[in-house]
Design a protein that fits this description.
The N and C termini lie far apart (67 Å). This protein has helices spanning 11-17, 24-32, 82-86, 93-111, 120-132, and strands spanning 9-10, 36-38, 41-42, 48-49, 54-59, 66-72, 89-91. By secondary structure, the protein is an alpha+beta fold.
Length: 133
């Protein structure tokens, strides 16, 4: 990755290079939808990032929404492998603990679900019970 002598990089390009999104188009859509904030404020696609900026990135859909808060350590315009991409930023501790907590909550919710769907006889019994009261 070309990480030397860059002082500013477009937000959509950096998010793509850091592998938060598979394409620059997806990164652009997320920024325009307000899912990426810099230092607590909404930003535009063309906003130029600098080392030390803090980004809050929301990814996923409603049932599995994850929010990461990262500090930019290095700038690059060339996409490389995931190991190199991980060196571009550092996730803050509060973000890590919050994501771990939310993952644990999702696991607990899944434990409350039944193992299988009710069969025909069980459905009849459930309907009978529901309508009886």
């Amino acid at each position: 990755m070309n990480q030397t002598k860059l002082t500013k990089v477009r937000t959509d390009k950096w998010l793509w290079v850091a592998r938060f999104f598979r394409t620059r188009s997806l990164a652009k859509e997320a920024i325009e939808a307000g899912k990426v904030h810099m230092n607590g404020a909404k930003i535009k696609v063309s906003k130029e990032l600098q080392v030390g900026d803090t980004l809050t990135i929301r990814q996923g859909h409603a049932t599995r929404l994850e929010e990461k808060t990262v500090i930019i350590k290095t700038l690059s315009e060339n996409r490389g492998n995931a190991t190199l991409a991980a060196t571009l930023y550092e996730e803050i501790d509060a973000s890590k603990t919050q994501r771990a907590f939310m993952a644990e909550q999702r696991k607990l919710l899944n434990l409350a679900r039944p193992d299988s769907r009710p069969d025909k006889k069980q459905r009849r019994e459930l309907n009978k019970f529901k309508h009886h009261w």
